[in-house]
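Homework-ish question, so no full write-ups if that breaks the rules, but can someone show me the predicted structure for this set?
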Amino acid sequence: MNDAIQNPLTLAARRSVLAYMATAAVVLLLMMVFGLLMRMTEGQLLPIGPDRFYQIMTVHGAGMVGITALGSAAIMWYFLSQYVKLSTGIFLANLALFLIGVVMILAGVFLGGFAGAWTFLFPLPAMSMGLWGKGAAALFLGGLLLIGTGFLLFYLDAARAILARYGNFANALGWPQLFGRVEGYGPPPTVVASTMVIIVDTLGIVAGASILTMSLINLYVPSFRIDPLLAKNLIYFFGHVFINAVIYKAVIAVYEILPRYTNRPWKANRVFLAAWTVSTVLVIIIYPHHLLMDYAMPQWMLLMGQIISYLNGLPVLVVTAYGALMIVYRSGIRWDMASGLLFLSMFGWTGGVVPAIVDGTIVINQVMHNTLWVPGHFHFYLLLGVVSMFFGFMYYLLKSGQAADTGLDRASLWLYLLGALGFVFSFLYSGKESVPRRYAVHLPEWVPYDRIASVFVALVVAAVLVFVARFLLSLPRLGAARHA
Amino acid sequence: MYQQLAWQVTLILVSALALVFVFVALRARQHADYEPIQHRGYRIRTRFFWALVLLGTPTLLYSMTDLPYAAMRDRGAAAQVVEVVGHQWYWTLSGNTVRAGQPVEFRITSADVNHGFAVYDPDMRIVAQTQAMPEYVNKVRYTFTRPGTYKIMCLEYCGVAHQNMMAEIQVQES
Ligand SMILES: [Cu+2]
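A: Not a homework solution, just the prediction itself:
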């Protein structure tokens, strides 16, 4: 099958991608500032009370998941539209639903006082002890539901487009090549990755939508009870799949951009196809590792949670990270912001896998669960991994607008790396010291860690401010008609 | 101590990964043909894959020999029993003195929302935990070896005074 680029982006499509990226950049920066506020509060550097702290925490959690999902959707859409015909209207509808959802969430939290965390574990939304009302909880849950609906539309359109070109998902995942019925390479990595994401995230969103709907009904009809353990299973299944799909969408930037820098193609050979098929299955069944401290769960599910956590590291390390290293090794690559950030992102992803697998070990989880070790590991691969992919893509767009990197850009990249590493390791170290996550007030002996972390977070925020400013200032030029 | 182990393993493996990335980055600007690199790279990858499998499998199996779930299944075992209920935002315990050297079985549930039950030793290190859930009883068994004052803290976010949920247990000489 000829996979050559068929559909150069129209002006409207290009501008839509820019609108996504601009939204994501601004909200991402704002959420980082919220993160800084939380660390400084724990470090007793700011007089923010627990009620406000937990509101900020709720927005930071839901906001980061949502905004990285939006940014990575733009990456997937931008590259996938080279191979299949996607609808710009649906793409924009997702953005619109997202923005309405964000307004609802912000209103529920900051006007209504909702502070039930992104996890909204049943029955907390309905049992605030008078801190927030039904309306506030309903705005938050409804906002999430709306955002999920937008992403579902986005995936349905992508599924339609892929099916139109490849016939079925098995072809799009490269199964004919994987199982040896057809010689040669599978579809482009972007198509394979997108297909995987469509499959798993549709399931994730359906699970999320069902528990959100049940929680909403429970708010107004308290006699409609939900099994709390079932609720947890649905929430963590949804949460795990949704945030993992963020990484699997964003990594498309690495698959597409690094080969252009090195003139070395990234082909979907059989090992690549096998890795993505395996990941498709693993991502769906791995979520019980969030429930290792729920002793009431069937024990085989918990054991499976650990085993799959160990297995899940293999495709990332052996295929994607290894492939990126091979493509870069002695390639004569020119390092700039885009290539540098994308290369860094592969370290961020694999580096974060290490403390993740450690925490997925049941005996270690028993002393690390819900300590700061947990945000330590996921900030590792979200901040150094996904956010690097995101800004790598952004600088790639800038470059296509013929903007050269400045010394300030490069300095910010190093600052970003330093800040992110320092921040992540202060989280991990605090976890080792048994500091709980999600505490508005820390014991005096924990405060020094929070202050050190705050300094590193401030460095990250400063660096990201430069990235975001650069992009926003270039928007008029990037969106100009003659550029397309 | 598992915390120490987790930290050290993480430091070592992340540093090893960082070295590999630095090594590749430093050689990236030189230019060589891709074909031989791929050829050699795939061979190394196969070895890398099997090394991971050969190291990972025994680690995985060995780590599963010390699971904390036993108390959920076997009843008969002699233990001091402490019934624990989480509330917004306090704990109730059926008793708060236990003896060291003899297993203690905590039976934990919640009267309202999800809480997390974590036992902190006198040095403020977590030694055991499980979730405190409405409608479910989670049982965790722990044998204290050192007398002293231990703390119970909530490790599942449960609302605005979540961080205030603390209780104490006195562990006496056996
Ligand atoms: Cu709590």
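Now go work out the reasoning yourself. Hint: Residues B 115, 154, 156-158, 162, 165 surround copper (II) ion (CB under 6 Å).
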